[in-house]
Amino acid sequence: xxxxxxxxxxxxxxxxxxxxxxxxxxxxxxxxxxxxxxxxxxxxxxxxxxxxxxxxxxxxxxxxxxxxxxxxxxxxxxx
Length: 79
Known about the structure:
This protein is mainly α.
């Protein structure tokens, strides 16, 4: 399975991939849940899925704007 097929599978998944991801993430890393207090987790799940789409776009096309945004996103997460 290549990156395009993987992303297609994620976008078509039921339950929504991001919601499933965060449920498992918090089960495995319960301390991380404190970082998401007052966060709308349905929205966060959507944001995660959108970020995966950007990763695929960067991998496929190498758009400079996507690269800059991903760097920005990485810096925000480092904080």
